[in-house]
Amino acid sequence: MRRTHLLNAAGLAIAAAAAALVARHFARRGWPIHHANVWLVVLAAELFLLAYASKAWGWQRLFRRGRRPAMLTLAAAGGAASVGGIALPGRFDEVLRVAVVRRCRRPRASIGAVALSLFLLGLIDSAALAPLASVAAATSDASGIARPALVLVAVAGAGGAAVVLGLPWLVALRPLRRFRASRWLVENATPRRDAVAAWAAVALSWSLRGVALFVLLAALGLRASFVLALAFLCASSASAVLPLAPAGAATQAGAGAAILVASGMDGDEAIAFGVAAQGLVIAAGALCLAAMAAWHAHGRLRALLPA
């Protein structure tokens, strides 16, 4: 019981510290680009929160019925990964996701089921980004390697969709049934209907993020172009959805800023926008993490109080 309380308190403290650091940075130095429209910034932050919720619902579809974690837990897991991306390198954010999901108050999914859901979620992320990357590659003014990079994201997304849709058929093949791993996959693989529902929800999540970036461009007085927002979204998210790409908040902000520069934006403005966008994503993730910690603390408090 004491360990549970400590973990809840630690989650709340980490979320509060991350939000405080972001707020302190902007309070001392101001927004990276001055004269930002506060109301549009708030709107962008709300859209990022809705994107977390939509992705959490889609991720929930990747678990078997009766073993699905709560949406708030999954949103908090995504938030923990964003907050951890400030300092953690490589794929350590996946470890944070697993740890948070295993803290769910509902019947717990096994570590293997959580890992499989994360693998499928990564493929669905790629599939959901493919149409956005295709549009950005076809319509943006990106030069150099930026356009081929967007094409690579689109191609990887098509491959991810094929794997997700073909996995239930593949593991059900008779020659593979004699393997224990295949039988486990048959029991835990996502049905096609749930996979399609997950894809729709994740696609909505990425679309909401694209709209949020468009709103943020307008809020900071930059060139408000939806194509530019899509290009930034695909470039900054490639490190999160491509299996062998580096992760981390700095990498994502830098990749997004690079494609803005390739599209003709001033370098200082592109870097400033990347920092502002990543700051809002992290702040929204910290809020999700704090909400889960408060939910757990409330449940423990009710259990301790006399009826």
Explain what this protein looks like in three dimensions.
The structure is a single chain. The chain is mainly α and 307 residues long. 77% of the residues lie in helices and 0% in strands. It is built from eleven helices and no strands. The chain starts with a helix and ends with a helix.
Beginning-to-end CA distance, first to last residue: 19 Å
Shape estimate? globular
Tell me about the largest β-sheet: none
Indicate the radius of gyration in whole angstroms. Answer: 20 Å
Beta-strand residue fraction: under 5%
- Return the string of H and E elements: HHHHHHHHHHH
**What is the residue-averaged pLDDT?**
75
Structural class by SSE content: mainly alpha
The percentage helix is: over 70%
* Contiguous uncertain segments of 5+ residues: none
Give me the count of strands.
Answer: 0
Task: Figure out the total of helices.
Answer: 11
Short account of what is shown:
Helices cover 77% and strands 0% of the residues. It has helices spanning 2-29, 38-60, 71-84, 92-101, 111-139, 146-171, 180-188, 192-219, 226-241, 249-262, 267-304.
Labels describing this entry:
single chain; 307 residues; mainly alpha; 77% helix; 0% strand
List the helices and strands and how they pair.
Elements: H1 2-29, H2 38-60, H3 71-84, H4 92-101, H5 111-139, H6 146-171, H7 180-188, H8 192-219, H9 226-241, H10 249-262, H11 267-304
